[in-house]
Amino acid sequence: MFFHFGVNTFTDSEWGTGRENPAIFNPTVLDAAQWVDTAVQAGVSLVILTAKHHDGFCLWPSKYTDHSVISSPWRNGKGDVVQELVNAANPRGVDVGLYLSPWDRHDPRYGKNKEYNEYYLAQLQELLRKYGSVKEIWFDGAKGSNAPNMTYDFGDWFSLVRELQSSINIFSDAGPDVRWVGNEQGFAGSTCWSTINRTALSIGNASIVGYLNTGDPKGTDWLPPECDVSIRTGWFWHKSQSPKPLHQLLQIYYNSVGRNCVLLLNVPPNPTGLISESDILRLREFRKAIDTVFSSNLAENCSATASSQRGGKDGGFGPENVVDGDHLWTYWAPSDDDDDKEHHWIEFRASDGPLRFNVVRIQEAIGLGQRIRQHEVYADGKRIASGTTVGHKRLHRLEKGAVHALSVKIKITGSRATPLLSSVGLHFDPFWHPNPNGQPPSKFVR
């Protein structure tokens, strides 16, 4: 979960000017514990705060500028939003990440390469030394068209991050640990590889967004994609906006989590310093819907067979592993001696009458790499879904609605190496109402 919060929250803006008076920042009932509680109830494990956005206002008392909470009336100038978030998150077992905007519309050093890069490094050092373990640091290349020319020393910044927090994940268009998915709609490509070539990436380069969206099966670097999208139209809170409807959030979920990505959902606190009740209610609805769909797996009550299995019947790699509840380290592996290496399959047969489902979930043993290039799903011999990559998780929400079938077969028709399936699910989504002609609702067509 992303928390976009700052002076923009009080000016009804998305991009501040840098000329805002810090006195406007006064969230009178700010409660970071409420933010974290909202995240926990939504099933979130990591929260990221905009410690500084493009306007340059700092949510912590930086030694290197007075354009911060120091100059605001909030907590009589002694407040620290970053510290309050850390204090709220740690006891709940929620990880914390930070965004420090490279573009700074306030600081006079911006545009002076040496001076500003040193300033930025100093602030990075503050954030990564003062607040304990930071699990993700967010970088981007956002910058207005009329901004002063400025060369960011990303190499130096990344080196400092690594020096101060060795286990941190660094996010940017170019990784090096987590990559941007290439848009802010929360949609990954229908083909989405975790692998990519970092040498082809650069931060702020609009020409690579397609490559970021799909990844590269021949890529030599492991950079899983992260889908950032806001629960509202804007990233900061605006009185005129309301949260996206449930069907849109579910579509985002299927096209992010369901396409081998991490979903980073922005939920902006309002000017009082709280998450708005309308957003909390929508998040509860969203969490309940996800639980409703995926809490029951029809495949668990089926018999499972496969084209072959490594080590034979008692080798430990049988098809029963895909429904054992371990989605990572137990898996079905076809035999390396299988003569038909391009058509491995696993099949589920119902014993108590036809299965009714409209979602098929497939997961690879991602700890051993991403392998599957092409796959198909059949119900009683009729193809009901097909796709390319699987990765950590592939969700097929069936375009023609619910299927009734006695058998379901998943065929792996193309793979970089022996495919390893860790989990398969057959689920029913009661919120999915496709058009009668079998196409998704037009508002979702991309």
TrEMBL record:
Organism: Coffea canephora
E.C. designation(s): 3.2.1.51
Root EC class: hydrolase
UniProt entry keywords in alphabetical sequence: Apoplast, Glycoprotein, Glycosidase, Hydrolase, Secreted, Signal
One GO-annotated biological process of the protein: fucose metabolic process
A matching Pfam family: Alpha_L_fucos
Function field: Alpha-L-fucosidase is responsible for hydrolyzing the alpha-1,6-linked fucose joined to the reducing-end N-acetylglucosamine of the carbohydrate moieties of glycoproteins.
Name assigned to this protein: alpha-L-fucosidase
Localization annotation: Secreted, Extracellular space, Apoplast
